Amino acid sequence: MDQYPDVNPNIYYNLLKDEYLINLFEKPPLHIHLNLLGWDCTSNCDYQCQMLVTDDRVLEGLEIYQFHGKWPFLRIIGIQELFSTLFSIGNFIPNYIGFKLLWKHYKIEVSKKNIEFTNLYFVYLLVSVVSMFAWFFSTLFHLKDTWNRERLDYLFAGMTVLTGFYGIVVRFFKLYKLENNIKRRILGIVCISLYIAHVIRMLYDWSYTYNMEVNVIFGLTQNFLWVYLSIHQFNKLKNKKLTLIENIVNKDYNWTLTPSFITNPDVKLVDYLDQLISIIETNINSLDIQQSVKKTYIFLFSVLLLQCFVVLNFSGPNIPFEKVNTEFGFLSNLYSQTGQFKTKLQSESLALLALGGSSPYHLTDKPFFLVLALKVLENLQGAYISLLDIKNFHLESSELVEKSFNMDSIEKKNPDSFIIASICWWRARALQVQQSLLSDISSELTSLSLSLLCNRVIDSIVDHENPNSNYNQNLLIVYYLEQAKIAMAGDLELQTLDAILNANKISGLSLVLTGCKAKMTKFQQKSTATLTVLAKSNETLLRSEQSENSFDPQDVKLNDDLFLERPQYDSIGDSELLNLHEEEENDFVKRIKLDYSNISSFENTSTSVNSKLLPTAIKESDIPEQLSNIDPNNQPSLSSLDHIQLMLRMQAILNNTPANNALVNEELIAIVQRVIFSSQNSVNWLIFARALWYRSLLETARPRTVERGILQLYSLVEELGVTSEQTARLFPKTEDEINFPLEFIQTTDLNKTLTNSVRLRYIYLLPLMPKWSMDSKLAEKLLELGALKSALEIYERLQKWTDAALCYASTGDKEKSILLINKALEEDPRDARSWSVLGDVTNDPQYWYKAWEIGRYANAKRNLAKYYYNPPKESGLTKDLQKSIDCMYDCLKSNPINFDNWYFYGCIGLEISNFELSAEAFTRCVSLDDTNSYAWSNLASSLIQLNKLSEAFTALQKSVNSGDSAKKSSKIWENYMFVAVKLGRWDDVLYASIVLLNRNKEHDNGDSSIDLPILEKLVELLIAEPYDENKRQTYYQKSCTEFVCEMVPSVVLHDSRIWRIVAKVDLWRKKPWLALEDYEKAYRAVINNPELISDESVWNTAVQACNDLVSAYENFGEMDGRHGAGDVVCKDWKFKAKSTIRSLISKGKACWEYTDGYEQLQELKKEVLNF
């Protein structure tokens, strides 16, 4: 701005000569806020001169001067340009907020390993960082103008404009893509070069005009590109045509089919399907495209139907069909028809899905989608007959399977072999979905699925030009994992293992189960043995996989005061736990034993570690080299396909081992933990949810984790279960559940990954679990835990009438319960269980007898036994133990492996004093469940009555060492202690005394747990052997001393007898000062008794305590004190002895002056006076 006059420096000189003006200037030192903002004496003087010159020229009406090339400014609280400063700060804040959002998205893309979007977000971050620096230096410049700040402000402003130009060019021309890496780098070099030239030009000749021109040119250019890009993207989304939807879903359909389907009984759903598919094909043929593309469109339509069905019945979240008529067209209209139409559509769809006498669940949501998908896939695949045609069910299984598919069209030379192979694959998936709806295994569906998913199919899809590509690797792994899942659903052990081993060979997953030292609790000092699974994915497979950005299912935390959320491992390769259970594993754990000789793809698999579902390393040296250096607390991420392989291995072990086997459960939990403890956002939603499901089922068998297990089941059922939208929830909806309906409706970007897509990605590789199976399993677990009311809603919703009747009966709704049972009996009059349940509800024994006559239902006899054991008042019967025993005898003959029945039988035996019967019954109980402490205790009670003390004590030892010790009755420990006393097992007596004291202490009745004769006997045994402080104490001496001197006094303060016992031990330990304190406490315990002045026996006890205390003063007062430095136990013991006697005489004079006790005190007083 050289056209404006600048100030003449001589003016400053003349001002400084004027003494009057000098007096107007601020005198040093400057205010602290000016110093903080960068003002000094020179700059402050310069500013004040500017103000004086400007004010003077304004008064004279003269032209205002510029100073140093800039207009004069008004300083406010030391800030040179206040509003410009606020403006700069205001620009910095949104840039900082944008930076945080960009950084969040950048980390997500890095975790996904999405290189292209990582490049784009990195460019955005660069622009954001440079902008923040520019506005920061702009703020400094406007606070106080200095030479350095001005240059930083202007230079970073130029950098911001040029960096923004670089960013829009990268975005506009898509230079962030991998194929444009070189172009993007060249652009970066050019921009950097331009900026370096700009800086040199400015430093050489600082020109404001040049700087503004450069910034305006590049700024306008980038703004133009941003506006053009925004308009282009908007028009692209607005004008997007979904040809497939328009021509398949939203075309004009002949809805005259609908009324004819309702009114004409001769029109079956199969005929309706044929006409519907014909219309769909006609609409597709109207498109001017190649025939192969038309076939692809119809195939994709069948996939759409199958995916919708799976989302509705398996993975969720629910699709808002009522709000997306445009996208789903006639599919939505079908279910908006009259109730009669929907009823017939539902019933006939379910009938078509039935196979081999097994029907699908009657509350399946929109089964017509699956039926239509199966029919379309059958037509596309060229099947000779349809599995949906009831007329074909008379065929034998082999013939039915053979004619249900056609593989002749799959040839390498056929250009359509890829799409035909894809159709076969998806038809196999649809058949497996149908299989999951049936209650029994269908050999036809299993055989047909494996036949469709054959080598010819995979050979038509793989890339033969690049055999070692990542595409081929992923495809083959999926192929073998899906084969394993199909074989597992058909209960084919050999094929399951074969497929898993083939998948492992291709994926390169390294896996081993080994022992570890770990801390399981928060206060644990010493690590204990546990199991862990070490696993590592192949790096190539891991790099080729992109993870999804999705919300994980609700992972319910343990929140336990004792146990850690996850174990803290110290070392690997510990053999303690594996060796401990080696014999148990060999005897009880059923391992999969297969003939590997027919597996052509593997040699010597019987001796290979990979031939096992869960390879085991007992010693650290047995761990494979690639796994030996893994930190079990921070294991590397696994690929999703390897996670699925782990889950399939777990399911295979679970299917082929006995239930509730402790060692197998530890192995399964180790597998689940390997998945759940993976790093955040590295596990697919469905895989993580399935791992949580398995963990919950395993944890419900553990007392410490049963609460978390049930809550986790609730969380998953609420998110995935039947009609979850209509039920009250324990857990709030997750963010993806809340946002999904709106995102599903509004999203027009086909590249955006929605929640349903994430959940569906791997659903066909894992065992399919319909929603209602999860609800049923939750209800089953709730019933196991006795939560009948909570299970009621689930059974009623699932329409399991007998189970619902039991729940209603437990809530007191007898009429509803009977109504539901009669409904079940109408369907099957020979249902013995329903007859028995009817007897339970009505309390009428005739129904139990009916159930026994029909099917020898054991529970009916058990209920009769309980009826005669405790007959209701209205029956007019009296307690008949013999009839009860007779009924239980019949019950146990029918079902001899029921623990509860044997337990009740034994209790009746105890009640009638038939101890031989009760001993036999409880012996059978412990043989069925050797962890039940009450069964062991009752067995011990029976054996005690039979005078078999040794056997009884063994049973009591089992009782106290089994189950959860926190839940054991104190009576068990008392019996244990008394039997140990009779047998002279004083170590066990001491142990039981300690346990009883601690248990009763928690309930504030610790003094009631002290058995004084036993305590005295324990002390007698303790002090029988002289105390040697230089000799290491025995376990008994150490424990008994701690028990008597520390634990007992902590709960008993008012019993003088106990304090005298404690004094004996302290004296035995050669600590007379403690013994004297014990006698003092014994004395205080008596004299503080409120009955001292009313009960002579209490008075006599106090006299005796006083006598003992005086003797203690006399005997211990002159002994060496606790410090051993010439001090004594009690230097003024004579005074204390006299004071004690006088105090007690004064207390008893009014009430007991002429009693023997009072006279005894007088005699004691005379003796003390002679000390």
Provide key terms for this protein.
1171 residues; TPR-like protein; TPR repeat; TPR_rpt; Per1-like
Name the shape in a single word.
flat
Helical region count?
53
Secondary structure: helix percent: 55-70%
Mean pLDDT: 78
Cα distance spanning the termini:
115 Å
The proportion of strand residues reads under 5%
Give the C-alpha Rg: 44 Å
Low-confidence stretches: 15-22, 237-245, 251-257, 580-611
Structural class: mainly alpha
What kind of sheet is the major sheet? 4 strands, mixed
Oligomer kind: single chain
**Secondary structure tally: strands:** 4
Protein name: TPR-like protein
TPR repeats: 798-831
Pfam families: Per1, TPR_8
Transmembrane segments: 76-99, 120-142, 154-173, 185-204, 210-231, 297-316
List the helices and strands and how they pair.
Blueprint: H1 9-17, H2 19-24, H3 32-36, H4 41-60, H5 82-112, H6 115-143, H7 147-172, H8 181-204, H9 208-238, H10 243-248, H11 257-263, H12 269-285, H13 291-315, H14 325-334, H15 339-353, H16 367-381, H17 397-403, H18 417-437, H19 443-452, H20 455-461, H21 470-489, H22 493-507, E1 510-521, E2 528-536, H23 539-543, E3 563-572, H24 576-580, H25 582-588, E4 616-617, H26 625-628, H27 640-655, H28 662-676, H29 685-699, H30 706-720, H31 735-746, H32 755-760, H33 771-784, H34 788-798, H35 801-810, H36 814-827, H37 832-842, H38 845-855, H39 858-869, H40 881-894, H41 899-911, H42 915-928, H43 933-945, H44 949-961, H45 970-983, H46 986-1002, H47 1012-1023, H48 1035-1051, H49 1056-1068, H50 1072-1087, H51 1096-1116, H52 1133-1152, H53 1156-1169
Parallel strand pairs: 1-4
Antiparallel strand pairs: 1-2, 1-3
